[in-house]
Amino acid sequence: MQSRARLINRSLLQLRGRLVAYWLMKSEPDAYSIDDLMRDGTQPWDGIRNYQARNMMRDEMKMEDEVLFYHSSCKIPAVVGIAKVASAPYPDPTQFDKKSKYYDAKSTEGNQRWVLVDIAFGRKLKRPITLTELKEHPALGDFRLNQRGNRLSIFPVDKKHWDFILDLE
Fold first, then answer.
1. What is the DSSP-derived secondary structure letter of residue 32?
2. Whether pLDDT at 1 is above 90
3. Which of 19, 45, 82, 130 has CA 20 to 30 A from 34's CA?
4. Measured between alpha carbons, how far is 98 from 100 in angstroms, rounded to an integer?
5. Segment 119-157, tens digit of pLDDT
6. Domains of the chain (ranges, CATH numbers)
7. Which one, of 69, 72, 82, 44, lies nearest residue 151 by Cα?
C-alpha cells in the first residue's frame, strides 16, 4: 500500500506534466555510503565511466526522480536508503582533473564526455533490504539487479519493483 505522502508527491509531479522516474544507484559503502549522503545532504554522483549509465543520467534522469541507494561490493549488498535527483545533468569535473582517478585525457572543455547529477538524501530505510532477500521474491524475478550479468551502477527501476521493495521494509 502506498503511503499518503507518496501519493501526494506523485500527484504533484503529474500536475507538472511528468511522472517521477525511479532509479537504483550503486555505491561501495567504503567509498561513499548512505551515511555519508545523510551527513552531506547533497552530493555530485561523479566518476561514472560507462556510456550506458552516462546516457541514462544525461538523457533520462530528471530532477525529483527517486533513487534507491544500494550498497554494493561489500559483505552484505543491500538497498539501504532513498535519495532524489537534485540537479539537471552537468559535466563531471573529475574528467578534467589529472589527479583524479576518473581523469579522462580524451575529454576537453569543448568535448565533454562525462556528466553527473547531484543526488539529495531522502532517508535511510528502516532496515537494509539485502540482495539475497531481493532474489528470494518471485515478484522481483525480472528486477534488473537480480538478472545475471548486470554490472551497471545506475539503472531504471519499474514502479512495481520500487513499490515491492519499499513494502519489504
1. S
2. no
3. 19
4. 6
5. 999 999 999 999 999 999 999 999 999 988 777 899 999
6. 21-168 (3.10.590.10)
7. 72
The three grid cell numbers given for residue 136, joined into one nine-digit string: 528470494
- List 82's β-bridge partners, or say none: 68, 123
pTM of the model: 0.86
In 3D, which of 147, 151, 137, 42 has the Cα closest to residue 163? 137
Q: Using CA atoms, how far apart are residues 21 and 87, in angstroms rounded to an integer?
A: 14
Residue 153, all three cell numbers: 551502477
Give the integer Cα–Cα distance in Å for 7 and 37: 25
- Cβ-based neighbours of 85, under 8 Å, separated by 6 or more: 23, 61, 62, 63, 64, 65, 66, 67, 117, 118, 119, 120
By DSSP bridging, strand 66-71 and strand 22-27 are: parallel
pLDDT, one tens digit per residue, over 61-113 is 999 999 999 999 999 999 999 999 999 999 999 999 999 999 999 998 888 99
